[in-house]
């Protein structure tokens, strides 16, 4: 997908999350956010259409097929953390439900998610 920024997206409360994915290993395409429903958990989290999903709750997505991703998403009951890669040319979108910068807790969550993703890749 070229150069871009890595961003941690967190959502709580369980499904529906309010986004649709496309791609996967069997399609030889990176897993990407295809659509975000307005006024959903996803739209309030800062997730953008076109974001590449690197990991879901610490599970790397590069070698997962679309059905495997759906199975993983369906197993999540309350808290969803996604490490995403956003292209540098993606326009910045203001978060619907947040009027303040990311908290220290959000930034620490990003660090732990990145470490979990790297650890899973090394062990897998």
UniProtKB/TrEMBL annotation:
<comment type="similarity">
    <text>Belongs to the synaptopodin family.</text>
</comment>
<keyword id="KW-0597">Phosphoprotein</keyword>
<protein>
    <recommendedName>
        <fullName>Synaptopodin-2</fullName>
    </recommendedName>
</protein>
<dbReference type="InterPro" id="IPR001478">
    <property type="entry name" value="PDZ"/>
</dbReference>
<dbReference type="GO" id="GO:0030018">
    <property type="term" value="C:Z disc"/>
</dbReference>
<feature type="domain" description="PDZ">
    <location>
        <begin position="6"/>
        <end position="88"/>
    </location>
</feature>
<dbReference type="InterPro" id="IPR036034">
    <property type="entry name" value="PDZ_sf"/>
</dbReference>
<keyword id="KW-0963">Cytoplasm</keyword>
<dbReference type="GO" id="GO:0003779">
    <property type="term" value="F:actin binding"/>
</dbReference>
<dbReference type="GO" id="GO:0005634">
    <property type="term" value="C:nucleus"/>
</dbReference>
<dbReference type="GO" id="GO:0001725">
    <property type="term" value="C:stress fiber"/>
</dbReference>
<comment type="subunit">
    <text>May self-associate in muscle cells under oxidative stress. Binds F-actin. Interacts with ACTN2; ACTN2 is proposed to anchor SYOP2 at Z lines in mature myocytes. Interacts with AKAP6, PPP3CA and CAMK2A. Interacts (phosphorylated form) with YWHAB; YWHAB competes with ACTN2 for interaction with SYNPO2. Interacts with KPNA2; mediating nuclear import of SYNOP2; dependent on interaction with YWHAB. Interacts with IPO13; may be implicated in SYNOP2 nuclear import. Interacts with ZYX, FLNC, ILK. Interacts with BAG3 (via WW 1 domain).</text>
</comment>
<dbReference type="InterPro" id="IPR051976">
    <property type="entry name" value="Synaptopodin_domain"/>
</dbReference>
<dbReference type="Pfam" id="PF00595">
    <property type="entry name" value="PDZ"/>
</dbReference>
<dbReference type="GO" id="GO:0032233">
    <property type="term" value="P:positive regulation of actin filament bundle assembly"/>
</dbReference>
<keyword id="KW-0539">Nucleus</keyword>
<keyword id="KW-0965">Cell junction</keyword>
<dbReference type="GO" id="GO:0005925">
    <property type="term" value="C:focal adhesion"/>
</dbReference>
């Amino acid at each position: 997908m070229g150069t871009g920024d890595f961003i941690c997206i967190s959502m709580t409360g369980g499904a529906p999350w309010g986004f649709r994915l496309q791609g996967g290993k069997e399609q030889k395409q990176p897993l990407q956010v295809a659509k975000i429903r307005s006024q959903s958990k996803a739209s309030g989290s800062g997730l953008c259409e076109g974001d590449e999903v690197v990991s879901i709750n610490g599970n790397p997505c590069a070698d997962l097929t679309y059905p495997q991703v759906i199975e993983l998403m369906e197993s999540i009951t309350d808290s969803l953390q996604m490490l995403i890669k956003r292209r540098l040319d993606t326009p910045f979108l203001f978060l619907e439900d947040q009027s303040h910068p990311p908290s220290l807790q959000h930034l620490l969550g990003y660090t732990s998610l990145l470490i979990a993703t790297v650890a899973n890749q090394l062990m897998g």
